[in-house]
From TrEMBL:
This is Transposase (putative) YhgA-like domain-containing protein. It comes from the Bacteria. The lineage of its organism: Bacteria, Pseudomonadati, Myxococcota, Polyangia, Polyangiales. It comes from Sorangium cellulosum (Polyangium cellulosum).
Amino acid sequence: MLGALVSKLTGVRLPRSLKPADATLRFVKPAELRLDLVLQGGRRRWVLVELQRSVDPAKRRRWPLAASLLFGQTGALGDVVVITARRAVARWAERVACVRTRLGTVLQLKPVVLHLGASESEALLDERHPELALFAAWAMQHRHGPGARAVVERAFELTERLPRALRRAQQRAILSVLSERMLELLREASMNPDKIPETPAARKLRLFLEAQGRKKGRAEGRAEGEAKGRQDALLTLLRARGLSPSQDDEARIRACAD
């Protein structure tokens, strides 16, 4: 998926030999750097990936340190890829890992920054690469307008092209990266009877949201039933021991949900 994303947005192809590796980097001293993703291919090829939602000053030290560690281990320079949906974060990421001493020593790491803006999101809605639809939806995490909703609906439509084993996972992943405000807007739009004719993308999203809602309702119903059963059992136990809970006591017990 990363190879397709990088190729689509930069025209550069990553080596096919890159595979997911342990994303925890260890030092001689008991310290660790945990990154979002580390890919390694053979003994000398590596890529570090960070999904950056906001500015994080600590990355000024962590990115050069992580790259230096792998450079020292492999003897080869790999890539640090930063993916963000915000232009301001993209500008920050390009220059944050640059420090200079008063004497003139410069330590700099300039990562490959992939900014997923509006135009990039449209490019990621590619029928030939439906797995990239997840990134298009992820780029909508801070947007809530009609255009953003259209991107999410189209992402759901393209997800239908994935193999069954991956389809549901990507659908859930798309919903997980959206803001609560966007999710609420999508639910409201899916229940709008005036939205006729309904597009195939909107229909797929509506059906998935309805299925998720039914599952949530059943889970809440089971939880409510189990709570009531525990409440009844507690009241019965108290009465069996000769205790007589007052109306206020019973109300407090009934108000407990766990």
